[in-house]
Amino acid sequence: MNLLHHLIATVVAGADPGPFALVRRDGAAALDVFTGLPRTVSRLADIPLPPGPAGPRTLALVPYRQITERGFACVDDAAPLECLVLSGHVRVPLTEVLAALPRTPTPVRDAAFDLSDETYAEIVERVLRDEIGRGEGANFVISRSFVGTLAGPALPAALAALRRLLHGERGAYWTFLVYTGTRILVGASPERHVSVEDGLVMMNPISGTLRHPDGAADRESLLRFLADPKEIDELYMVLDEELKMMATVAEQGGQVIGPYLKEMAHLTHTEYLLAGRGSLDVREVLRETMFAPTLTGSPMENACRVIARHERRGRGYYGGVLALLGRDDAGRQTLDAPILIRTAEISPAGALRVPVGATLVRHSTAAGEVAETHAKAAGVLAALGLRSASAPPVTGPADTGPAGAAPDTGPAPFGAGPAAELRLAEDPAVRAALAARNHRLAPFWLEERTPGAGVLPELVGRRVLVVDGEDTFTGMLTHQLRALGLTVRTRPWGDALDHGRFDPTDADLTVLGPGPGDPESPTDPKMTALRGVAERLLAAGHPTLGVCLGHQLLAGRLGLSLHRRSAPYQGLSREIEIFGAVRRVGYYSSYTALADADEVVTGYGSVRLARDAADGAVHALRGPTYAGVQFHPESVLSQDGMAVLTDLMRWLLPTPTVPTRRGTPEPHTSRHPG
């Protein structure tokens, strides 16, 4: 009897087989069967990765609460970081797996969402009004859970659910069941969070959701979905947020590949791939990428605060990851980590929890996000023999796949099913709609970059200090500045609280970076500290660039009025004129400076403004030793971001003067007031 049959026979006999995991990865024709010894650790750095021959070593279940390792907020439910230190591993053909797994689902009692549709809708409206509307971030993911109690043993129910997912779901990155002895996770996650192989780090932001609970999407609905601004913006925003993470774990940041369709049984998503070379320990890669913005929001640190404020309960493993760590033939570390979504958490006693969430952006409606949570729960619930209140019923006998699936006669090969038969992803109009999404994005992130190719000789060796206002867009900005030849270091805004040890002029140029919040708040310690930094830089006449929040702080110190927009500019791309040049740039802001003239005189010299002709909003400002931009030149939405940065660097760091033959200094370049 092979390992899989032994495990299943033990479970059917009512005995405990010990910890194990069953995993089908990315459409493989076989299923990995793992066994191992359980071990609980406190930190990601403590996940064991013992030496040995090539192959997987440890499977880690990383809960959402692990975000506290980065100092971010959460409702701490004490969910443990559990590991299986692997001792057994075999691969079993999928046909054999499906023949062996139990077929009949276990009834579930008292099944319902923990938050009613009405309560969840109220939370959505509150987040849109109080968080996105007031500049706390661009998008946030708020969750709810479908809960119940199994009327029979938990492991047979999970095995039956796995069988139905293997048969009826498609397009999953991992379809899995993990049993640690203390908990069971069973699900079909569409999304790779991060992987490392052969030194290549990859991430996979997925966002935008087309619901088709009764079958595959049709061509017309798919084209409407691909043209929907709300769905487009969702994907762009998580793309930017994951590029921030890639800026930390990949040596040159990430290159954007795609977009593609992610077609599943009940839903179709859009996705990108991000790739970059890196050399960090894979456990450090996990730490620096906690957690996917598709499950939290952006900017990440404040998104965690918003989640804690509005969910008011722990997330368990929702939004965390499974992480398979190992080594390759050369002894290098490997990592494969799907996001824990579309997953049921089951206790050995039979308590069931299926968490789901919706990404809230400025276009969101409460009704639409409520419907999205039902659709996202549908696949796992159908596998459990359930449906949510507004989902279509599961039809046919117990031995059918998820709602609307064909009778369970065998494995569904990767990519099979109605959507594949229609070949919508190959339809010329669909391919054109996907390709069009990149037409206005930044070439810097879309193209493979050759180190040194964009260096400006006059900037080589010049030093830049970036003050981070709690938005890791600064990581992307750092890569762009380094690509121009500058030497860059970053310090968190909190360092500015120590006036004796923090000198904001300790560089050739200081960048006041972006971040969430009200720039005029009298009680926010971050804003108080950063206003003080802006004043010190202006008073010293030190070359200074403000980006988004930093721009607002400079504008306020220069005497310009600040205003909260009636409609947030979160994830918005616009074509604007900046000091004589037309540029397409991306915005993430709810506040703006206002002015009624193109030039104002301040205590720090004459300031030229690039303003919106309609409402006087200040897109950019430029003074004798400082400049500010309300948009994000580093964003993937800023098609002309590098051109803007190049112009700004040449303004703020002109080529040093050289002596003439008579010894009189003469500039190589000069700043023109126009």
From TrEMBL:
Domain Chorismate-utilising enzyme C-terminal residues, every copy? 117-376
The protein's UniProt keywords, in alphabetical order, are:
Glutamine amidotransferase, Lyase
Keyword presence, Iron: no
Q: Known EC number(s)?
A: 4.1.3.27
User: Which InterPro entries does UniProt cross-reference here?
Assistant: ADC_synthase, Anth_synth_I-like, Chorismate_C, Class_I_gatase-like, GATASE, TrpG/PapA_dom
Residue limits of the Glutamine amidotransferase domain? 465-647
**Quick one: where's region Disordered?**
391-418
What is the top-level taxon of the source organism? Bacteria
Using the UniProt record, name the top-level EC class of this enzyme in a single word. Answer: lyase
Entry annotated with the keyword Iron-sulfur = no
Q: Which reaction does it catalyse?
A: chorismate + L-glutamine = anthranilate + pyruvate + L-glutamate + H(+)
The molecule here is called anthranilate synthase
Organism of this sequence? Plantactinospora alkalitolerans
